[in-house]
Each structure stands twice: as C-alpha cells, then as structure tokens.
Amino acid sequence: MAEPLDPEMFDPVCPSSAMPIQIGDRWTAMVVLCLEGGRRRFNELRGPLRGITPKVLTQTLRAMERDGLVTRTAYDENPPRVEYELTDLGRTLLTLIAAARAWSADHLPALLEARRAHDSSPRSSLSR
Amino acid sequence: MAEPLDPEMFDPVCPSSAMPIQIGDRWTAMVVLCLEGGRRRFNELRGPLRGITPKVLTQTLRAMERDGLVTRTAYDENPPRVEYELTDLGRTLLTLIAAARAWSADHLPALLEARRAHDSSPRSSLSR
DNA sequence: CCGTATCCTAAGTGATACTG
DNA sequence: CAGTATCACTTAGGATACGG
Question: Which InterPro entries does this entry report, sorted A to Z (chains A, B) (predicted)?
Fold first, then answer.
C-alpha cells in the first residue's frame, strides 16, 4: 500500500480541483484524499497540496486530529519521522467527498457557464 | 405547495444544524433547503435562517443567482414582492446536501466526542 | 525532517441605520 | 416589503524566517 502520490494532484487554483463543498477548512477534504491510500509523512502531503505552507498544513492536521479524523504518529528517530493516517471516522468522509466530486464533474461546468453568462450580461452591472 | 416554513428550522448556533460541508458560503446550503418546498419571498427566508441579516441574505441570494442556482422574480407591485426559486441546477444540490446531513446524523456525535476528549486531555495543552 | 514564531492581509460576517 | 449604506470585527490563510 501507499504508492507514491501525484505531486500535482491538487492545485487549488485549478478549476478542476474546484469542489462545491468544503469539509472543515480549505484543505481538509484534500488531506483526506491524500491519506486515502494509506499513511503519509508530513512532507509527502506538501507536494500534492500545491502551495500549502507548513504552518497551514500543521494547523489543518492538528484540527483533524482533534476531531478524530486522523492519527499522528511520531517516531523518535533522527532525522524525525511523523506519519499521519486516516481513522475509521476520517474514512467515512470519503464517500461524501466522492459525492461532492461527482457533483462537480456533473454540474460545475453549468455553474461556471451561468456565472460567465451573468457576468458578461449588461444587466449584471446595472439597474437592480 | 409551499407550505409555511418552520421559522426556527435553522439555528447556526445549534449543533444540530451543524453540517460537515459547506456549499459556497455559510448560508447557501440552508437557502437551498429553504427553497426546496417551492418559491419563497425575501422575508419568508429570513425567519428560518435564524439571525441572518438582510444584507447577508441579499449577498447570498445574489451569488446564488449568479451561479444559476436560483431565479429572482420581482413583481412590480406596491408593496414590492420578490420571489426566489431553485433552478434545476440548484435542485441538483439537494441530494448532496442530504448526503451531508446523513453524514452528520451518523458521525457528527463521534466527531464532537473526539473533540471533547482531546480538549479535556492533559496532553492537549502540553508537549508537542 | 518537521515543524514554530511573527507578521500581515483579505474575505466573510454581522450590527445598525436608512430608503424607494 | 425588500432591500442599501456604513462601519466594525474576526478569522482563515499566507509570506517569511527560524528552531529542535
């Protein structure tokens, strides 16, 4: 298990990463997906989560640990090694996240098109 | 259709309203649910959405209209009347929201318990 | 390698008051 | 009735630098 992650799996700027939902904060759902394949080290998570700073990743993981979504295991080695893993509770989010991604695949283009049409309409900046 | 809404249906402070997901901003999912039963007037929405201010409700509805989730119909009457209604696209969110609420019903207690246990643990404020 | 410590800004939200 | 106009505030999130 735990095959290498695509280091560019998530790019929050890229619309294809757009999710209609947010679970917890901005990164939580992505972290869950990153941990789907098994336990990961801190720096293994930083790659796929394009642009996340260590501070924010720590924050996110701490909050998830607090909520019982992940476990944190620190090995007393040098250099240090810390691994994160989904709990059973954390894994229950996977189906919900999958549903959300399915919604995006099915309907996000329509939403974006509606937005584009609205923004380019003369009425959008006028009389209300 | 359009039976009267429970004026206390949603209280963002109440944990039973807690959602594991957010769709758009803080209120969007609740607005979708409020409109599930049919078209509603502006002030009809303010009751169930406990504590929402008119400014924020307007913001939310405008954003949803822009994204093609609701339609806004203004009748030229006095006193003014404006009705909001879900579009087909907006209705596609209902199943996703239902899935989210089901997750809450099934797993939110466990999450909250994990949080409580973590917060009351002596380790939570100590050595990291 | 795995974080912390500071500092900072932008967005979201709300309170209050006012208007066509 | 259905909004707007201000003002104020909190917090998530990020940039950067440093530490065990």
Answer: HTH_HxlR (IPR002577), WH-like_DNA-bd_sf (IPR036388), WH_DNA-bd_sf (IPR036390)
Q: How far apart are CA A93 and CA A37, in angstroms?
A: 14
Q: Give the distance from residue B41's alpha carbon to the nearest chain A alpha carbon, in angstroms.
A: 17
pLDDT tens-digit map of B39-71: 999 999 998 998 899 999 999 999 999 999 999
Residues of A whose CB is below 8 A from B113: 68
B40 phi and psi, to 5 degrees?
-140, 150
Where in chain A are the domains?
Answer: 23-119
CB B11 within 8 A of CB B41: no
Residues 18-47 of A with CB under 7 A from strand D: 25-27
Give the HSE-up count for residue B13: Cα atoms under 13 Å, Cβ half-sphere. Answer: 4
Give A79-115 as a DSSP string.
S-EEEEEE-HHHHTHHHHHHHHHHHHHHHHHHHHHHH
DSSP A25-56: STTHHHHHHHTTTS-EEHHHHHTTBTT--HHH
Cβ–Cβ under 8 Å, residues B95 and A77:
no
Phi-psi group of B24: left, alpha or beta (phi > 0 → left; psi -120 to 50 → alpha; rest → beta): left
pTM: 0.91
Secondary structure class of A72 (helix, strand, coil): strand
